[in-house]
Amino acid sequence: MSALAKNYNRKNISFAKGKGSFLISNDGVKYLDFVQGIAVNSLGHSNKKLIKAINTQSKKLWHVSNAFKIPEGETLAKKLVKRTFADSVIFQNSGAEATEAAIKIARRYFFSIGKPNKNRIICIKNSFHGRTLAAIYASGSKKMTEGFGPKIPGFDHFNFGDHKKLKRLINKNTAAIMIETVMGEGGIKVIPNWCIKAIRKLCNQKKILLILDEVQCGIGRSGKFFAFEYAKVKPDIVPIAKGIGGGFPVGAVLMTRKVAKAMVPGTHGSTFGGNPLAMAVGNAVLNQINYTLLNNVNKMSKYFILNLNILKKKYPKIIKEIRGVGLLIGLQLFKDQTNVIRILPPLNVKKSEIDLALKIIHKVCNELNKNETFY
Ligand SMILES: *Cc1c(COP(=O)(O)O)cnc(C)c1O
Questions:
Q1: Are residues 77 and 179 in the same domain?
Q2: DSSP for 223-239?
Q3: Whether residue 99 has its Cβ less than 6 Å from ligand 1
Q4: Are residues 95 and 242 in contact, defined by beta-carbon separation less than 8 angstroms?
Q5: pTM over 0.70
Q6: Domain tally for the chain?
Q7: Whose CA is nearest to atom 5 of ligand 1?
Q8: pLDDT in tens, 127-179
């Protein structure tokens, strides 16, 4: 009997080691890993430069308090600012912490300009921003919030695509619109560029902030550093996590100078957030998210999606739709349509590994096709 609580529906497999796109289970079976810790191991397993970075830093210094300067964090923040819309960064340890900090920053900004009643955040119904209390109520998901009341107030919801409702929801108490640029947990729903642009325009008109949650789709996963770059917009606040640590827990909130001004000493903090060990790994990840890697994401994505669509044509009764951007790909089957298969290879995936994945998916479709009861 496991001493772990039952809050996860775990598969009966455990792993001994990993290398690149592959995992070896404790009973010796080799698996192609196109989950990568849910978009976390952006550079695959056992990346040499990440191993070196963590080993080197672990011999020097693991942790000091944020009461002191942390040069490794200064460096990582500078790099993030240089590559993005942002002027300022606060480091956290996870995605949920980063989205919660984003909510706090939006509210504190309006407080700091004498508008404390502008504190409501508009979100998409059944989105995903993490599992902490505010984050589950931000998601507007019945399943995630059930039994965790009282409800955390301050969030308003519209259905994906319901722009009329979105416009109606904005009132004098609205502080921000917070959406995932690509809805990951919600089944890889890519928000179209024209829509992101229109939402930015709406935020400008109503003088409210735009928070784009790039915890899953950010840091190169989309084929650009941030997925919102496709829409050519500048958000005000962007929480990140998953990919930036390459497997080490790192989160962050990126923001413009305008909102960062509100975050004066004492307004926010984290004991672990941005410690030297995490920052050393973050720097080693970011150094590898270069033009060549993004080029690989785009090339591999094109090849993968093209061939998945060929499989869709071959098995029109099994595969309903292939969608996604970069290496954030969703495969929707006709059966159990709310359950989209997410495919998340490492960003440095090789063509031969995608060929292997296609072969496996082809084989599964072929088996299902023989089994008439499947559809
Ligand atoms: C995973 C995820 C989060 C939460 O991240 P945790 O590290 O699990 O807290 C938040 N937002 C999005 C879009 C995510 O995909």
A1: yes
A2: SSSSGGGGGT---SEEE
A3: yes
A4: yes
A5: yes
A6: 2
A7: 95
A8: 999 999 999 999 999 999 999 999 999 999 999 999 999 999 999 999 999 99
The model's confidence at residue 338, banded by pLDDT at 50, 70 and 90, is confident
Query: Is 2 inside any structural domain?
Result: no
- Residue 342 and residue 280 share a domain: no
Q: Is 43 in the pocket of ligand 1 (CB under 6 A)?
A: no
Q: What is the CATH number of the domain that holds 175?
A: 3.40.640.10
Q: Is any atom of ligand 1 closer than 6 Å to the C-beta of 326?
A: no
Last residue of a domain, which of 286, 321, 353?
286
Q: Are 203 and 346 members of one domain? A: no
3-state secondary structure of 316: coil
Distance from the CA of 364 to the center of ligand 1, in angstroms?
A: 30
Which spans in 113-243 are helix H? 133-139, 142-145, 163-169, 193-206
Nearest Cα neighbor of 322 from 372, 365, 292, 352 is 365
69 token code pair? 């300067």
Neighbours of 12 (CB within 10 A): 4
pLDDT, tens digit (0-9, with 9 covering 90-100), for 225-252: 999 999 999 999 999 999 999 999 999 9
Q: Kindly report, residue by residue over 273-314, the tens digit of the pLDDT.
A: 999 999 999 999 999 999 999 999 999 999 999 999 999 999
Whole-number Cα distances in Å, 224 to 291, 298, 327, 347? 9, 8, 11, 11
Q: Which domain does 66 fall in, by range?
A: 50-286
Domain presence at residue 157: yes
Cβ 219 vs Cβ 289: under 8 Å: yes
CA–CA distance, 248 with 277 (Å, rounded to integer)? 9
| Residue 94 in contact with ligand 1 by CB distance below 6 A | yes
Helix (H, G, I), strand (E, B) or coil at 364: helix
The domain boundary, picked from 269, 286, 303, lies at 286
Q: Does residue 313 share a domain with residue 268?
A: no
